[in-house]
Amino acid sequence: LFSRFLVEPLGQMIRNMGQIAHGKLDLVVNKKGLREFSRVADSFELMIDQVKLRASELERLLDLDDSAILRFGRDGEAIYFNRVAMEVFGYQEDEIPDLDLGDLFSEAALGLMASGVAAETALPDAPLSLQLDCRHKSGAWFTCDAVINPSVARSGSGYTIVLSPVSAAEDVELSPYVA
Q1: pLDDT at residue 152 above 70?
Q2: Nearest CA to 72 among 32, 120, 114, 14?
Q3: Main-chain dihedrals φ then ψ at residue 140, nearest 5 degrees
Q4: Mean predicted confidence (pLDDT) in 30-50
Q5: Distance (Å, rounded) from C-alpha 125 to C-alpha 8?
Q6: Which of 9, 63, 64, 159 is least surrounded, with the fewest CB atoms within 10 Å of its CB?
Q7: What gap in Å lies between CA 58 and CA 53, rounded to an integer?
Q8: How far apart are the C-alpha atoms of 49 and 9, rounded to whole Å?
Q9: C-alpha to C-alpha distance for 88 and 145, rounded to whole angstroms
């Protein structure tokens, strides 16, 4: 879904910008050149609108899932949480960019993820399944079954973590133990 709704439109936009940068479009400063530039600018604006629309559609699709879906960048920084993930962990959308793996998972879980993901990198079609000790915003801990998919994109590697289907934050049994 990420590829269809986000990567492909961005790839097309980058290819078009590359043509402009390498002078493959006739942009002579005359009426024809101005019309061509206007056409390219309009196309660029259309692509931006399409990317925004597709990103919005993708977000709506991910919010329909009853699993908590979390996306992290190469350095473990939080990139995306779907609605269920925000409910389960107790965070608001504007707090997500300030989070990283260490804020949400125990040290033991981080070690398992690091060793497991390193072993699975050679086989990206075989996601890593394990139980993770997770930390709620309140500091309480809970355990969830998780599937971790390491991924590599142009911007670098990262992780997509899908926690087992959870219908609402109340369904997660929080405990005061420290992992």
Answers
A1: no
A2: 114
A3: -70, 150
A4: 77
A5: 20
A6: 64
A7: 9
A8: 10
A9: 13
Structure tokens at 38: 């206007």
User: What is the residue type of 66?
Assistant: D
- How far apart, in whole angstroms, are the C-alpha atoms of residue 106 and residue 129? 16
Residue 99's pLDDT band (cuts 50, 70, 90): very high
Query: Cα(23)–Cα(167) distance, rounded to whole angstroms?
Result: 53
If you average pLDDT over residues 96-116, what whole number do you get?
Answer: 82
Give the DSSP per-residue string, 20-65.
Answer: HHTT-S---SSHHHHHHHHHHHHHHHHHHHHHHHHHHHHHHHHHHS
Which candidate, 36, 37, 49, 7, places its Cα nearest to that of 155?
A: 7
- 134 burial type by CB count under 10 A (0-12 exposed, 13-18 middle, 19+ buried): buried
